[in-house]
Amino acid sequence: MITDTRHTASAPPVEETRHEEELARGLVAADEEAFAAIYRRWGSLVHTMATRLLGDTHEAEDVTQQVFLGAWHGRAGFRPERGPLGAWLVGITRRKIVDALAARTRRLTLADSAAHDAGPPRHDEEAPDRVLDRVLIIDALAGLPHHQREVLCMAFYEDLTQAQIAERTGMPLGTVKSHSRRGLHRLRQVIEQVPAHGANP
């Protein structure tokens, strides 16, 4: 009885591995049914990863679609000897999330620049200082730990309250407040280190 129980317990992982290998072969062979099964099996994982890191459901849906489109079009590049299919999909997901974050940063920078350009005219000598301030703040944000940067970007660019940020990210409200406080402290340090405008070098 003990021997049979151990054999039964070890069977599911073996069957799971075989099934994953079959799906991988189906993907490489452009089998649409296998691809549909792949989406059913890993689609929710990909979407969860994207939602957690991007904090936006709509962006996560776009990334999920891009991941599976990329997997389908790039199926010839899958190499089973380098790792299982699931790990390959997770790798694609991470790259697509990085691309989405980079695109978001570009959009925010362009929007900020456009808003500044559309504003009332200022003295010419102020423009370089304002540009410098924005660059320094963006650079300082980029240097923060991920969660601090995420919280401050939502507060600065999306005008969300700490409670709304907690609801969107799933973080406890106290954690959001902690990330916000530490991030702002770091930004304040960076800003205070900048020489006063017009000061001699």
What does it look like?
The protein is mainly α. It has eight helices and no strands. It has helices spanning 2-28, 32-54, 57-73, 85-118, 127-142, 146-157, 162-169, 173-193. The longest helix has 34 residues, at 85-118.
Short key terms for the protein model shown above:
201 residues; mainly alpha; 79% helix; disordered N terminus; disordered C terminus
> What would the principal axes of the Cα set say about the shape?
elongated
Mean pLDDT comes to: 75
Please mark out the parts with pLDDT under 50 across 5 or more consecutive residues, or reply none. Answer: 1-12, 121-129, 195-201
Total number of strands:
0
For the sheet with most strands, the description reads: none
| Number of helical stretches of at least 4 residues | 8
Tell me the fraction of residues in β-strands, as a range. Answer: under 5%
Task: Assign the structural class, choosing from mainly alpha, mainly beta, alpha/beta, alpha+beta, or little secondary structure.
Answer: mainly alpha
Rg over CA atoms: 24 Å
Helix fraction?
over 70%
| SSE arrangement, N to C | HHHHHHHH
Question: Between the first and last Cα atoms, what is the distance in angstroms?
Answer: 83 Å
